[in-house]
């Protein structure tokens, strides 16, 4: 016999997508597809137009709880720019680790290891959608390529983007990225998304248009 | 160097430190007060489940199993004026572990948009995700 208070409570079921505004769904889908196609290409320079000229970017990294593969799937590359303000307490360093402006953001993104994102498995939350701004959270996985590992590691990430209208498209004003290793359960569900041929990216009208930063709705 | 940006960044970090301390303490130990941290129209998305309004969010929290959060990383930025009409607003992102009812900790990531209203910092949006695959497609 036990007491009623000890009854097991269950967690709500997780859902893949939350859209605070149904209209925003199509814009978000297109924005993410274009952004990650370019991010996974060998020409991340093209993302320059996806960022506001004064945009801010920062990154944190950590190993997930209980993982034993720190030796093989080390995250060293990400630790240099890890802006974890729990550890980084010096205000000068906190400021320095923040990438300020689209040019410095792109030069950092270009240094990051090559990637192949599993777009089909993205979890997407659109939490603000107003005429002046959108707040978008993407969680998912990517395969890290050509970074000196015997087996390309599968990383897990969560990224928060603040997006504003610009010209006939949109651009990112704030970008916070968290990178960690995918857990065994996550790795089982990973699917490689084949990259489109580069020609498609280059000729995409919304990217080459000077007024449309990344997406034309 | 941009002096005003520098001071905004400093403040964003300080607010993030103070805010997360209060937030996770409320989530773990004082859930009956958690609605006070949100705007009346605040939004919580918990693993893709949207809960709109501070009263409903509190109810949602009261129904969750007991939690114990530990933070591993914290990051904060001031949101650019263009996006928020110049109103002081911060983007805060967190990662850590959460134990539900003394079970094995789960890794989570979470972000907050926090804005100044009536002399208090209030949550506009709170987005929580456990780091695990979705089993049922929505």
From TrEMBL, chain B:
Keyword Repressor part of the UniProt annotation: no
Signal peptide: none
Ranges for domain NTF2: 15-130
Subcellular location: Cytoplasm; Nucleus
Main subcellular localisation: cytoplasm
CDD domains: NTF2 (cd00780)
Keywords in alphabetical order: Cytoplasm, Nucleus, Protein transport, Transport
Gene Ontology CC entries for this record: cytoplasm; nucleus
Pfam family, one: NTF2
Biological process (GO), any one: protein transport
Job description of the protein: Has a role in nuclear-cytoplasmic transport of proteins and mRNAs.
Protein name: NTF2-related export protein
């Amino acid at each position: 016999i036990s007491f009623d208070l000890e009854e097991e409570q269950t967690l709500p079921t997780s859902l893949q997508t939350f859209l605070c505004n149904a209209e925003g769904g199509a814009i978000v889908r297109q924005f993410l597809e274009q952004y990650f196609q370019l991010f996974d290409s060998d020409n991340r320079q093209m993302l320059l137009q996806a960022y506001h000229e004064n945009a801010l970017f920062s990154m944190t990294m950590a190993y997930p709880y209980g993982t034993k593969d720190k030796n093989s799937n080390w995250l060293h590359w990400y630790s240099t720019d890890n802006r974890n303000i729990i550890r980084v307490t010096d205000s000068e360093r906190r400021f320095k680790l923040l990438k300020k402006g689209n040019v410095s953001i792109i030069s950092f993104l270009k240094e990051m290891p090559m990637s192949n994102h599993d777009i089909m498995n993205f979890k997407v939350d659109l939490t603000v959608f107003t005429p002046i701004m959108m707040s978008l959270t993407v969680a998912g996985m990517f395969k890290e390529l050509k970074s000196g590992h015997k087996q390309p590691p599968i990383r897990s990430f969560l990224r928060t983007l603040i997006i504003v209208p610009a010209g006939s498209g949109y651009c990112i004003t704030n970008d916070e990225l968290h990178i960690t290793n995918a857990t065994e359960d996550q790795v089982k569900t990973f699917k490689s998304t084949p990259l489109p041929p580069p020609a498609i990216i280059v000729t995409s009208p919304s990217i080459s248009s000077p007024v449309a930063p990344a997406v034309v709705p | 160097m941009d002096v005003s940006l520098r001071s905004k960044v400093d403040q964003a970090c300080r607010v993030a430190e103070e805010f997360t301390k209060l937030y996770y303490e409320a989530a773990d130990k004082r859930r009956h007060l958690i609605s006070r941290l949100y705007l009346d129209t605040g939004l919580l998305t918990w693993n893709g489940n949207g809960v709109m309004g501070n009263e409903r969010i509190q109810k949602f929290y009261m129904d969750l199993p007991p939690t114990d959060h530990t933070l591993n990383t914290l990051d904060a930025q001031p949101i650019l004026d263009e996006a928020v009409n110049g109103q002081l607003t911060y983007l805060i992102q967190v990662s850590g572990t959460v134990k539900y009812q003394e079970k094995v900790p789960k890794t989570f990531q979470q972000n907050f948009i926090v804005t100044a209203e009536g002399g208090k910092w209030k949550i506009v949006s709170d987005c929580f995700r456990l780091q695990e695959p979705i089993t049922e497609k929505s």
